Structures are given as structure tokens and as C-alpha cells.
Amino acid sequence: MPLHPQAEAYLKLFSTDLGTPLASLTPEVITQLRALDGFAEQRGPIVPLPVVEDKVVEGVPVRIYRPTENDHPLPAIVYFHGGGWVLGSVDRNDALGRDLAVRNGAVVLSVDYRLAPDHPFPAAADDAWTVVKDVFARPEDYLADPARIAVCGDSAGGNVAAVAAWRARDAGLRLAHQVLVYPVTDVAMDTPSYRDYATGFGLGADEMAWFVEQYGGDPADPRLAPVRLADKAGLAPATVITAEYDPLRDEGEAYAAQLTAAGVPVELRRYEGAVHGFFGLPGFFDQAVEAREYAATRLREAFR
User: Fold this and answer.
1) pTM reported for the whole predicted model
2) What is the mean pLDDT of the chain?
3) Alpha carbon distance 228, 222 (integer Å)
């Protein structure tokens, strides 16, 4: 399909993801990018919730959203934001955390994992796993139902969600579901979508290479590239969402195919005409709302 008209309008304003030349990205500039959010108004409303609480889980900051005041255990979603392991935060994704809680009737734990290059690989993956383990170990502290725990993440957050899912399997912890939104599943950057959408479609191939360089790690390590995981049997059922005009499209879809081949129940949905990042910007993209409701439908089915 051609670019969605909303994606086309978006790209006229933001032709690159970082919005600044890579050569200018000094530590000071990275700090400034983390502090500023040019998309705050497009991330959606800050829905009032009865419980919004910040806490620290074994050194990892987490924001907890609960859509009800009662003390009945709810399903739990551990959410990991995107940003190339370098940018993003719980504050920046506050609207999405609230939205996930309301749509799913679930307690949401939004994880402020450590960021590169200050904290390179595998810091983000380890922080993600720390929080997932803790929800299983102490569900009563979160008023969570231990039989209904899911992970969810977008972009680099989808990467750490996928890694947490296989680490949970290996630890004998049964996740109800994993939602991976245009996830980073490989760092080879050699797919047709990387070539076709290398420039001019928001997230560029050169920007993604820069993000990977900041995070570091061995490209063969499945904690960095989940497609390299040798055995995918027994992983949590998955929903994989991709965007047509996204360098990461093919690796996300390849991972979905690998899960299917391993006998994992998977549903893949590609959003035609969409660009990377649409899921987090309902103020720009109607498809963001569609994709969020689709993901919520899948999660509600898994929780039932």
C-alpha cells in the first residue's frame, strides 16, 4: 500500500527519528533529547486513575498503574518503552501506561530500565528480567494474579520484552502472553525492509545502527537478537505488530514465523501504510488506537 495519509503528513514534519545529525550526538545532546519530548501532546490523554505509584524493584524504577481501587488481584502487564535502548522513559510513556491499564483492566508496571550508552548491554535486558521475576515472586505486592502475567514492549522495548519472555520460560515461569510491537529482534540490519526504508520514513537505518552501537553486545547473543535463540518451543503465546514502512518490519515478522514454526501460538498483524513509532502517537495516527485495541483484545483473550 502507499503511505497512509497520516504517515505522509507526519514524515513531512519528522523525516528522521532523532531529528538531529548523528555526528552531533554528544553525551550532552543525548541528555537534552531525553529531557525534551516534542510529541507530548500526541501521546494521548493523561487518563486519571485511582492508583499511580512509583516504586523501585531491586534498583529498577517502576511506575504502577491500577485502574481500580479494590484489592482484587488483576492481570498484570509488564511494559517496556521504546527509544533504541538510549531514549525514552516512564514519564514520556505515561499516557500509554495509563491507556494499557484501562483497556485491559490490568495492573501495568511500566519499567524505567537503564539506558545506553551509560549502561550498555545487557543492562536493559537484565532490568526487564528483574521486574518480571519480581512480579512472579511477589504478586501480592502488586495485587496481581500470578496466572495472568504478560509482557509488552515496542521497538527496543519489544526487544527486552521478547528476551524477558524466553528467560521466563527457561526459569519455569509461565507468562500468559507477550505483545511485541515492531520489535528489534535482530541487529544484522540486512533485510529487504532495511534496504527499502533506509531513509525518509522516520526511523532510518543509520539511526538504528547508531542505537545498536550505543547499546553494544554480541550480535549472536539472543539477549540482543532474539531471532538467534536456538530453541523457541514453549515460549509464551505472542502477538506481533509491525508497520509496513519500517526498517524493523522484516525481522519482527521473521521472529513471528520462527515462533510459529516452534509451535508457539502467534498472531501477526502488519499495519499497512504505517511507519515506525505509530503505536505511541495516537494524536498523529488513527492506527495507533486500532493497534492498541487489537493488542488489548489479544491480551484480554489470553487473560481469560
Assistant:
1) 0.97
2) 97
3) 5
* CATH code for position 229: 3.40.50.1820
Residues annotated as catalytic (active site), given as ranges? 155, 246, 276
Q: Which cell goes with 256?
A: 513471528
pLDDT at 227 exceeding the cut of 90: yes
pLDDT one-digit tens code per residue, 140-184: 999 999 999 999 999 999 999 999 999 999 999 999 999 999 999
Cβ contact 254:186 at 8 Å: yes
Length, in residues, of the chain: 304
Q: Are 150 and 239 in contact (CB under 8 A)?
A: no
What cell does 287 get? 492506527
Domain that holds residue 66: 5-303
Q: Is 280 helix (H, G, I), strand (E, B) or coil?
A: helix
Could you list the beta-strand ranges (E) of 131-265. Answer: 144-154, 177-181, 238-245
285: three-class secondary structure by DSSP:
coil
Domain count along the chain: 1
Instruction: Tell me: pLDDT of 228 over 90.
Output: yes
- Upper half-sphere CA count for residue 189 (Cβ side, 13 Å): 16
CB 182 within 8 A of CB 279: yes
